[in-house]
Amino acid sequence: MAPAVASNGAIFQAASGYAPLHYGQRAHRLGDIVTVVLAERTTTAKSASGNTTRAGSASITPPTAGPFAIDPNILSAGASGSFTGKGNAAQSSTLAGDITVTIAEVLGNGVVRIRGEKLMNFSQGQEWVQLTGLVRLADIDADNRVLSPRIADAQIRYGGKGSVQTAGREGWLSRFFSKISPF
Fold it and tell me: Is 83 in the same domain as 107?
């Protein structure tokens, strides 16, 4: 049988979740919960072009008389080559929503490491969001929320599996031919 903890007779019990008045209920300790408001938007564009031209020629003037006489029109050579290439790429991504994470580590400089994941099962598969990063305690609002752009070293992973993700993926035979085809 475990020994009973002695009661000190007071209403205040420090072991029952004491938080000083100047802290309020703002998350700041190991295991505290923080809601991250995902507000990510990225847009990238890249364009490249190239053009090269190369030409060369060589000619030899052979003897026109004697035992080694050769018709001068036979010995001439020339070569040329050109390349023109152009490429464009554009990508736009948006991620919005909320994910509630926990404080996994408290660093001594007013910064905490957060970590968490959300798994959602739907009728056509499942999706997940995983998040880790560093947050300044000053960026956590009174409702224990922080915007995702305020997270340093953020690693946000979004993925899923199911019929919708499978339908949007290139098939194995197409991937094989795209790797070996030079065109």
Answer: no
